[in-house]
DNA sequence: CGGCATACG
DNA sequence: CGTA
DNA sequence: GCCG
């Protein structure tokens, strides 16, 4: 049945999602046009009137054979299925379109087949743009006739274009190819809710890798001392599983500092000066320098207890404490757990029976520790998690994260046009594969956000895309007694599956978190949910230590008088805190 | 020796 | 306690 | 486990 081949998807680091601003890692900008059938052009695909499958296919073709970009004005070639001028103008400013080759999707396919850019004459998408399209066609025959009036061939100076919420006006991927395109009249979105354009550069030289705060230390996805970091992380993980949280925190901090250290470590002297490297951890690093490993980490990795606790705690809803309890009951394998929790092997939770899962309430203090009454019972909900474990353990390639974002945003825009969103989490930090997908949403009109989370979840649920709702909740303002303030943060933790019509569909269920913020706290929510955890922790620590402020995902308040602050952009949060800008791809303070 | 991010269910 |  |  679900034997649609999962797209191999060789080239990644592709187009950044709609309004997210993660970039490819700063290090390399390989220009290898090898293996690409076309020269490296910047192609922008206008999503209107294309279904999800076509978008994915075209994007894939462009990525593999040439290059894509996320802004129309940065592109050389616009590809669109739209044929009417008025329609195109809703997605690309006319003045911009006039400076590009605007062609049909067939041009891309044929050019790839042909092995080079074809003349655009036969592929003009919009009649009124025939002249300019031929002029700007990347096939270099007609270039010499450069009697162009405008055409600054390098990207035009980009006047602040009116930006509208045109995030993926593609139809739902459920409806096949035809396009009704409902709800027109683009909603105007204030500039500050959209990602900065151009993106803000990270001034690495003004940051400080010796800082005691992770939010001042630029940390790449993978560092030059990565294997040492992994050793320390093994010990951290073990401490955490064993309930030694403070010790775990120390290892986490040490690893985080090493992660940001930009040189290969060759001597102990290099690291003992770094913060959070004390006697014990310094000794372990010395050992690592001498032998290439840390004995304790190797021992841990080999131990049955560690392996088992790790396995148990990898199940959603099972933490260190429960994992240890199960281990003490002499359970060791998943099969043991399935028996213990009463799962019938042979695909159970399979098939799309929609399940609503409620968080299990905690036992009262007075009856915990008396392992009795409820040993194999109760947690009907762990059974569900067990059934999901295999799927949720799979990582999600960037391209699929983007597809999920597209699908969800399309549904949302149907529901409430004008929403703005950012895909956050590890994806935004540049990870090539994610464990889950987190999306933060808002709407320029604050009054339209309330209840949206629940509505969207209901809609996705009705359409079979959300199979489980692990959690649905709201946050509120800092007002101890919130009077006229409605909640300004709503959150849903769900399990999601792409519709079978999606080219990425392979039946794997994925964790999807949806976060709705009021526009005033949109960027603080985005910062919070972008992480990494250590980065987030230290930004809060910094706010407290240096500014006397409290920072959480739903806002910033001054501690002594509870005055609230509402930075209008992500950059303004950094400025408010007196911090240098750190791009999301440099916030990888965790392993 | 106290603090280590913070909030919700 | 477990999750973000 | 490390810091002030």
TrEMBL record:
Residues 33-125 form the BRCT domain. Coiled coil: none annotated. Residues 1-35, 148-181 are annotated as: Disordered. It catalyses: DNA(n) + a 2'-deoxyribonucleoside 5'-triphosphate = DNA(n+1) + diphosphate. The keyword Transferase applies. One of its GO terms (biological process) is double-strand break repair via nonhomologous end joining. One of its GO terms (molecular function) is DNA-directed DNA polymerase activity. It is an enzyme of class 2 (transferase). Its cofactor is Mn(2+). Its main location: nucleus. Residues 161-178 have a biased composition (Low complexity). One of its GO terms (cellular component) is nucleus. SUPFAM superfamilies: BRCT domain, DNA polymerase beta, N-terminal domain-like, Nucleotidyltransferase, PsbU/PolX domain-like. Residues 10-35 have a biased composition (Polar residues). Keywords: DNA damage, DNA repair, DNA replication, DNA synthesis, DNA-binding, DNA-directed DNA polymerase, Lyase, Nucleotidyltransferase, Nucleus, Transferase. Its EC number is 2.7.7.7. InterPro entries: BRCT_dom (IPR001357), BRCT_dom_sf (IPR036420), DNA-dir_DNA_pol_X (IPR002054), DNA_pol-X_BS (IPR019843), DNA_pol_B_palm_palm (IPR028207), DNA_pol_lambd_fingers_domain (IPR018944), DNA_pol_lamdba_lyase_dom_sf (IPR027421), DNA_Pol_thumb_sf (IPR037160). It is found in: Nucleus. DNA polymerase that functions in several pathways of DNA repair. Involved in base excision repair (BER) responsible for repair of lesions that give rise to abasic (AP) sites in DNA. Also contributes to DNA double-strand break repair by non-homologous end joining and homologous recombination. Has both template-dependent and template-independent (terminal transferase) DNA polymerase activities. Has also a 5'-deoxyribose-5-phosphate lyase (dRP lyase) activity. Belongs to the DNA polymerase type-X family. This is DNA polymerase. It comes from Dichomitus squalens.
